[in-house]
Automatic annotation (TrEMBL):
Name this protein carries in UniProt: JmjC domain-containing protein
Domain JmjC positions: 51-132
Source superkingdom: Bacteria
Keyword rRNA processing: no
Gene source species: Streptomyces noursei
Any coiled-coil regions, as ranges: none
A GO molecular-function annotation: metal ion binding
InterPro entries reported for this sequence: JmjC_dom, NO66-like
The entry's keywords: Iron, Metal-binding
Cofactor(s), by name: Fe(2+)
Amino acid sequence: MTLIDGVDFQRVSADDAAVALPRTRSYENLHVHVDWIRLASRSLEVALGRRVTCAAYASQAGDTSLGRHDDDWDGIIVQLEGAKRWRVWTAPEGGPTEIVTRVGDVLVLTRGVPHDVDTPGRSLHLAFAVTHQPRPVEPPLTRM
């Protein structure tokens, strides 16, 4: 598991994380370990023609992200619990647009778009990362 505290990422064991509040917890590679997320990731890969990974972010009230940053992938954010406040800079000059995602909302963040995040209450969201890598070619099914 990874804990995110302001500008710091720290990998810790689950036991260490129990005493590490308030920090956002990041659960990575869910597209490998959780069946329904694997299915959703593969469906996105087929639709978009690019490799898709997935992580979950669980936050408590007051947790913050890494500050203003951008990612090297297109993000499809799905809010599962609580709410998350996003500040997104869509123009090179000027201030951010504030967006609050609530349960059931989907936010698409294009690669390279600066953003900052904080948590007004508690939050759980999935981040499907649509990479620039082509979708993996799956081997054909063989009959027994």
